[in-house]
Amino acid sequence: MRRPRTGEAEGEDVSVTGIGVRQAVTLSAVVRRYGRGDGQVPALRGVDCAFARGSFTAVMGPSGSGKSTLLQCAAGLDRPTSGRVFIGDTDIGALSETELTELRRERIGFVFQSFNLMPSLTARKNVALPMRLAGRSPSRAQVDAALQQVGLADRGGHRPAELSGGQQQRVAIARALISSPDVLFADEPTGALDTTTGRAVLALLRSVVDHAGQTVVMVTHDPVAASWADRVLFLSDGAVHGELTGPTVASVSEHLARLGG
Ligand SMILES: Nc1ncnc2c1ncn2[C@@H]1O[C@H](COP(=O)(O)OP(=O)(O)OP(=O)(O)O)[C@@H](O)[C@H]1O
């Protein structure tokens, strides 16, 4: 079984000294409120956490606890109401929209539950699309290498409808990996998959960390999916409520039950 590697210690410190050196992503006192006045919803109430380079973390918690909001803020897809988010040592709140777009393109990959592939494009063209939209044409070899990494070297010419759900998600992961991002964020990547295909996607995320040294942060409701991670961070009501290193299905389920999730 996997175990957290050296340097990926329990209670990883969130202090400024670790930023950019050991941490791929750091959130400091992050608050995110939606809406205004009486209708305001505090989705995150002051979150401090960090994700070590080359680690796989699952983020869990009851529905509405702020998991997706945390991921969106960490990935620079949403801006916190207050607090700071660092990718490596870059404070992304200090970036202009153009700089943030550039940083997301170069250093961050995002995978969604619903794959979000273009139905009319082949797997190869889907994988190449973000780079093409950014005005760069990846080489055929680059695209094929990304498809190879997710075990779909022989499916490049297929359209999404000709692929299984698990294969479609692997194409989406190849699309996220083609720019060799430091961090891959995944929001319920196995939520729409059956157990077997979900396991293949989790094995792939695991190998992205173990073999490519990238950092994966995954939101999930599933204790089995979370048990593939090095660490589980629990959220409840917009705040961090504990973490587990070396999670097992049983320990994750027990912690979730205590949170009421
Ligand atoms: N765009 C939005 N506008 C208003 N409120 C929002 C918005 N997005 C999220 N919220 C609220 O913020 C809180 C946290 O939402 P979030 O989606 O981050 O939770 P979650 O833990 O990912 O939930 P789930 O497990 O159900 O997907 C919830 O109360 C939600 O209703």
Structure description:
The protein is of the alpha/beta class. It has one domain: 3-Layer(aba) Sandwich (Rossmann fold), CATH 3.40.50.300. The chain is built from 8 helices and 10 strands. The protein has a 6-stranded mixed sheet, with helices on both faces. It has a 4-stranded antiparallel sheet with strand order 2-1-4-5, with helices on one face. A hairpin with a 6-residue loop joins strand 1 and strand 2. Helix 3 crosses helix 4. The protein is globular and about 50 Å long. The two termini are 26 Å apart. The N terminus is likely disordered. The structure holds adenosine-5'-triphosphate. Adenosine-5'-triphosphate binds next to strand 2 and helix 1. Pfam families: ABC_tran. One of its GO terms (cellular component) is plasma membrane. Keywords: ATP-binding, Nucleotide-binding, Transport.
Question: Could you name the key traits of this structure?
Answer:
261 residues; alpha/beta; Rossmann fold; 8 helices; 10 strands; disordered N terminus; binds adenosine-5'-triphosphate; transport
Measured as a percent range, the helix fraction is 25-40%
Q: What is the CATH top level name?
A: Alpha Beta
The general outline is globular
Structure class: alpha/beta
For the largest beta sheet, what order do the strands appear in spatially?
6-7-8-3-9-10
* SSE string, helices as H and strands as E: EEEHEEHEHHHEHEHEEH
**Domain tally:** 1
Radius of gyration, in angstroms, nearest whole number? 18 Å
* Total of helices: 8
Which small molecules are bound?
adenosine-5'-triphosphate
Per CATH, the architecture is 3-Layer(aba) Sandwich
Largest sheet, described in full?
6 strands, mixed
Mean pLDDT: 90
What ranges have pLDDT less than 50 throughout 5 or more consecutive residues? Answer: 1-16
Work out the strand percent: 15-25%
CATH superfamily placement: P-loop containing nucleotide triphosphate hydrolases
Counting DSSP E segments of at least 2 residues, the number of strands comes to 10
- The N- to C-terminal Cα distance equals 26 Å
In CATH terms, what is the fold-level topology? Rossmann fold
